[in-house]
Amino acid sequence: MAHEMIIVLDFGGQYNQLIARRVRECGVYCEVKSYKTPIDEIKAKNPKGIIFTGGPNSVYDENSPHIGKEIFELGVPVLGICYGCQLMAYTLGGKVSSCVTSEYGKTETVYDNSSLLFKGLPEKAISWMSHTDFVSEIPEGFKVSAHTADCPVAAYENAEKKLYAVQFHPEVNHTENGCKMIDSFVKNVCGCVGDWTMGNYAKTAIEDIRNRVGDGKVLLALSGGVDSSVLAALLSKAVGNQLTCIFVDHGFMRKNEGDEVEAAFADWDINFVRVNAKERFMSKLRGVSDPETKRKTIGEEFIRVFEAEAKKIGKVDYLAQGTIYPDIIESGTGDAAVIKSHHNVGGLPDYVDFKEIIEPLRLLFKDEVRALGRELGLSDVLVNRQPFPGPGLAIRIIGEITDEKLEILQDADWIFREEIAKAGLDKSINQFFAVLTNNRSVGVMGDGRTYDYTLALRAVETTDFMTAEFSRIPYEVLAVCSSRIVNEVKSINRVVYDVTTKPPATIEWE
Ligand code: XMP
Questions:
Q1: Which of 33, 200, 369, 494 is the most exposed place for a label (fewest CB within 10 A)?
Q2: Per-residue pLDDT averaged across 37-63, rounded?
Q3: Pick the CATH number of 396-497 from 3.90.1640.10, 3.30.450.40, 3.30.300.10, 3.30.750.24
Q4: The pLDDT of residue 355
Q5: DSSP state of 397
Q6: 137 CA to middle of ligand 1, Å?
Q7: How many CB atoms lie under 10 A from the CB of residue 490?
């Protein structure tokens, strides 16, 4: 697919994703690449512009990420942000020094409106700063285009060479007009038109899939989650019933969810196979209470079931996967520790007889996947679905899983979801669910003593699910949930609300 493209070069900054998002919001396709990407690879991508991200280092640190001068000689516009701003100065012969007063947070900034970057914007506005080094001398041929009380070079540029740099972060919301600055860089400096729309994307993706697949057979593991559902819709538009979707229902879906997924695809011109494999999964999980063992067992069994079904179809030409962009991002930073082994359908290729993998969503962010789903006519129920872990309710039942516990959790979770929706909170809370703890406590019901389970309610607000705040659900809503759950669901006599942020807790309990 030929798109106008901007490359974000990642120097380890925490906002690299956000910068890419902002560029895409301007209607221009954008990829994040490690700063280590060879220059020939960058050239081959034919970018209309390059943006350097921030990063935690100082340019003078021995191990800090650096870049060769050639990148500035490609004739491609460059915008350096924060560390990227300092690195541009350092590489092109300017000077970077430690701040006498570090700037952190909202900072009044004075802009030179004759700069293409700040044209038409107010002369004074707030920018978001976060730095302990600053550019103390700009390289030859450049001019300063913004300053603050403590930072004499808040922005500088060489308009002729189309090299721009800002010490602050235009990508974060706290910078007033930050998005307009990025838009200006992308459109006025780089000359992009901005033709990255979901309608266009869908059209091109469908043509692309048709060309690639021809009259071949395509196989997809459908989980009912947003990504695989949108992928099914896209493939269905592209190759119709050359596509077979296998939906492995492991029995740990939320109440009625398996049927909902099946119903959602009932009218589509695809081969849809639902495998009701609850008994298989339950038998493997008997006696298992360790969270990681549960996850691994389910992951493996999933592959076995899928494999058995796929074999019935025989040789397929293409295996489709719902990999999305955040899954494949290259980053300049090191490896993260494994907190939980996520079970997705990623491990399948080794086990299924196919020729090639296709990943038509690999360029999209999550909300772009949702937008594509809407474009393709998927129902709101599917498109707006909150994230749901691959192992499902199995990791929301603490300790060993039994049929009884599964039913208790499904019923309680159903009530919680219903009440949150009734209170109109389902749009603002990013994820909410019930957890059946393994704790039992004494209660009193009517005149009798009870000794039953404690149910925990969890609701979080987050943008990236890497960090999260617990939702401030009004007490009145919690009171209704608690009262209904205790009264309507057997074997629960106590309801608690989880008020922990992530970190230190995770969103799921296992
Ligand atoms: P944690 O519990 O790690 O969860 O804070 C972060 C987000 O990831 C979801 N999650 C999973 N998603 N497969 C998935 O596709 C998994 O195995 C899995 N485990 C957790 C979780 O629901 C939350 O949105």
A1: 200
A2: 94
A3: 3.30.300.10
A4: 87
A5: B
A6: 47
A7: 11
